[in-house]
Amino acid sequence: MIEVNPIIIIFAAIFTSNMIFSNFLGMCSFIAVSKEIPTAIGLGISVTMVMTVTTILNYIIYWTVLVRFNLEYLMFIIFILIIAAFVQLLEMVLERYLPTLYYSLGIFLPLITVNCAILGISLFMVTRQYNFMQTLGYAVGSGIGWLLAITAMAGIRSRLNEKSIPEGLRGTPITLIITGIMALAFVGFSGMVQIQ
Amino acid sequence: MNTILTTIFIVTCITAILATLLTISNKTIGNYGEVTLTINDDKEYIVQGGNTLLDTLRAESIFIPSACGGKGSCGYCKARVLEGGGPVLATEKPLLSKEELDSNVRLTCQCKVKQNIKIEIPEELFNVKEYAVYIEKIEQLTSTIKLLRFNFGDEEISFKPGQYVQLKAPAYEGNEEEVYRAYSIASSVNDTHAVELLIGYTGGIATTYVHHHLREGDQAHVNGPYGDFYYHEDDGGPIILAGAGTGMAPIMSILQYMADNDIKRKAIFFFGARTVDDLFLLDKLKMLEEKLYDFKFIPTLSREESQEWKGEKGRVTIAIDKYVEKGGNYTAYLCGSPQMIDSIVEALLKKEIPLEKIYYDKF
Amino acid sequence: MIKKSEVKKIFKKGIYTENPVFVQVIGICSALAVTNLMMNSLIMGIALSFVTAFSCLTVSLLKSYTPKHIRMMVQVLIISSFVIIVDIYLKAYMPNMSKSLGPYVGLIITNCIIMGRAEGFAQANPPILSFLDGIASGLGYTLVLLMISSIREILGFGTVFGFQILPETITKWTLMVMPPSAFFILACIMWVTNNRRLKLERKGVEKR
Amino acid sequence: MKNSLYYPILFMIAVTVVFIAILASINYMLTDTIAFNQESELRQKILYIFDVLPENDDPQEIKRAFDEKIKQKTINDIEVYTLIENNQEAAYAVPINGPGLWGSINAYIGLNKDFTKIIGIEFITQSETPGLGGRISEDIYKNQFRNIDIEGAADGNYIISSPQPGSNVDAIAGATQTSSAVVKMINEDLNTFFESTGVR
């Protein structure tokens, strides 16, 4: 394995290996919640936070428990259980103690458990054999990349004039086409920085 | 074998820890204690806080219609929250109009009960329930109208005379979608373990189901009661009832209510039909005429050629013109097709009966 | 017990009227990532149908015993267990397929179709119906995947399930091999189905 | 009962035990098959580099051929595979890796016993665009690396990709970046190998 600086991994995760545009993860909430900019930013920030914390938890459990007892084949179960439990706990805590934060970000938490981007990060961290700092960089970068992508999409969609689009293309289909074009644009970043 | 046991042990430890964490926090952080839920300013419930309003109401057997199951995407579960609902959430805004936001309307599946809360919901939702019923009796009244008696078993329904229930027509051979159709209750409100419906055959999904597929003893589903067409205890003046075909159903319920409660009001029932063959439930009406304080049944036939018919002929409005006194302090209940009701309302207005004393149910 | 008409309705909903991918717009992450080859799509579709059907069955069996606050955990545990079974099976008997699907097998867990059916259908319906519903949704998903991948594979590689059908000499359309093309094709499929639906709706209005 | 403190935990434990027991048993039964599959793939690739693949690709056949002809050996801390012919080392497969366009590429490159010729290449992992850079895994590209004389190569440029003058390998049309990445990693890693081991 080539040692890569965690800072470079952050940039790579934002641009060259953007979760949405090159791995297509987290598409469901990306399409459903990208109608307005404030909502998109709220969801993006929640995703980034949850992604960072759960990836670190999963990293620790993976190397201290799963690898030691040869249980790597069970990583899916453990990872998703940790994500689900963490999201639910976080929701309860925010709702009780930080209501303002809850009303702006917490309400998106139930959408996050089934967001494949979160689980995806934990799985890629294992297949790419990152060390702790690299994992941290990768999680933070991917979160920011996701936030950037959904905000950009919300910006475009809020300026889209629905009337000038053929009726059958309105809504999801046109969003998919825009995403496709954006993905092609992001191909331009390839080769700029390396992720592995 | 050993490896399998260690695996089970380790994973179980992890899930047990997570489950414990969640359970404890559910008992502590997620526990908002008991709060008071006030509905429409008069009914109070002591409920467990921490759940959504929709779930809380459901636990109290108040069913607010909801199609998406609490995901905040259908926008059906609206209700006015007057106090204690917290700020409107971003997940609700796309589904609420400006007027609704101004009048404190919220999505009950998103709004959580964390403190004492006051809400307002349509009164009729209190009683609405879904009942699993079976068909006790089917009676062919005329060539196209059947009377069906749905038995509720141990359950009870409470409704006002004149209200309707919805009957579910499930998918059957030749029909793939499930539909609900409304039918007025023809039976007495005291008969709480059953409802009787009059259902005429029109060739539609639900009436085809009723006329060609339902047999005595079959299972069916109804929910209700609904509707703001029902008997009003007002000034006690004389009552005009008018209907045609299956529109007799709510009127029968009103008449039986009057008989059961010995209400001493003058009542006159104009029933429109084409020929003698289209008249039904005559024995029951005869009985009511004897039992009630002052009740007259006036069938008017528009197409009867036979010389034996001694009753009224022509349209209902002609009979009304003949029997109703101008300026009498009447209250009117009408149930029938829109055209029929429009013409009767016109005739009643001519008799100087104010519009607010004319209740009707168009179908 | 179970009426034929009800089964028929479930399948019609899963495959056409409420197709998870192009009507409900869920579970499209993997629909885009694995559709460059038809074989991959087929295996992915079968795997997803298997997981959805059995997860729904189990969730439905356990629904009345599951405490509310750990329902989410129980559901993800059930779903991920079935995914691991699929993963182990592919690794043991179809190693090449396992390699080319890579992490997307694991990501079946977070495919919203499974969670959606488990929460939306299995939670309120008897086990056998839930099982059939799972198969129907999975089938609907598989068909869309195959539709997208057939276009991509023919234009991008000139092959169908790996068999050359276009002459070797044609210029391959590279864009079709690259992931963004899946967006365009899915959008077009939705466009066609939307138009059909709109046309039917308009006809319905005129009739009335 | 559902509201008690212990019920949810016990319920969770029960569900976990049942499911993990099933999974652990399945895994236990299939572990060997999976491990064999993974080894089999590597064996096949190493045999391919030396161009000594058995005619049928039955995994057992491959294992026999591999055990018979290939030995693992460490030259100066670098793990290489050697081809044994007539009880003598006849060729070597040296690991090389480097960044591709999308992710790192891991490969083995085959050298003859005097380290004067490249005799083959095989990619172990690569995540290049299928149909473009991904075509480095196709035989048509890899077979170009059979029998390339590197004895007289200047400045450690053993492989020169077209359209450079004096090229000995054709780049993949439309995937210039991947092609040059492969060339770069071969040249760099071979140089390091030769310098550190001093075999030449």
UniProtKB/TrEMBL annotation, chain A:
The chain crosses the membrane at residues 6-33, 40-61, 73-94, 101-124, 136-156, 176-195. Pfam families: Rnf-Nqr. It is a multi-pass membrane protein. It is found in: Endomembrane system. GO terms for cellular component: endomembrane system; plasma membrane. It comes from the Bacteria. Keywords: Membrane, Translocase, Transmembrane, Transmembrane helix, Transport. PANTHER family: INTEGRAL MEMBRANE PROTEIN OF SOXR-REDUCING COMPLEX (PTHR30335), NA(+)-TRANSLOCATING NADH-QUINONE REDUCTASE SUBUNIT E (PTHR30335:SF1). This is NADH:ubiquinone reductase (Na(+)-transporting) subunit E. It comes from Sedimentibacter hydroxybenzoicus DSM 7310.
Automatic annotation (TrEMBL), chain B:
Residues 33-125 form the 2Fe-2S ferredoxin-type domain. Keywords: FAD, Flavoprotein, Iron, Transport. CDD domains: fer2. Pfam families: FAD_binding_6, Fer2, NAD_binding_1. It comes from the Bacteria. GO terms for molecular function: iron-sulfur cluster binding; oxidoreductase activity. Residues 128-232 form the FAD-binding FR-type domain. PANTHER family: NA(+)-TRANSLOCATING NADH-QUINONE REDUCTASE SUBUNIT (PTHR43644), NAD(P)H-FLAVIN REDUCTASE (PTHR43644:SF1). This is 2Fe-2S iron-sulfur cluster binding domain-containing protein. It comes from Sedimentibacter hydroxybenzoicus DSM 7310. The lineage of its organism: Bacteria, Bacillati, Bacillota, Tissierellia, Sedimentibacter.
UniProtKB/TrEMBL annotation, chain C:
The chain crosses the membrane at residues 21-39, 45-62, 74-94, 100-116, 128-150, 170-193. It is found in: Endomembrane system. Pfam families: Rnf-Nqr (PF02508). InterPro entries: NqrDE/RnfAE. GO terms for cellular component: endomembrane system; plasma membrane. Keywords: Membrane, Translocase, Transmembrane, Transmembrane helix, Transport. It is a multi-pass membrane protein. Its main location: membrane. NCBIfam families: PRK09292.1 (NF006777), PRK12405.1 (NF009070). PANTHER family: ELECTRON TRANSPORT COMPLEX PROTEIN RNFE (PTHR30586), NA(+)-TRANSLOCATING NADH-QUINONE REDUCTASE SUBUNIT D (PTHR30586:SF1). This is NADH:ubiquinone reductase (Na(+)-transporting) subunit D.
UniProtKB/TrEMBL annotation, chain D:
Residues 100-193 form the FMN-binding domain. The chain crosses the membrane at residues 6-30. The keyword NAD applies. This is FMN-binding protein. Keywords: Cell inner membrane, Cell membrane, Flavoprotein, FMN, Ion transport, Membrane, NAD, Phosphoprotein, Sodium, Sodium transport, Translocase, Transmembrane, Transmembrane helix, Transport, Ubiquinone. GO terms for molecular function: electron transfer activity; FMN binding; oxidoreductase activity, acting on NAD(P)H, quinone or similar compound as acceptor. InterPro entries: FMN-bd, Ion_transpt_RnfG/RsxG, NqrC. One of its GO terms (cellular component) is plasma membrane. GO terms for biological process: electron transport chain; sodium ion transport. The keyword Transcription does not apply. It comes from the Bacteria.
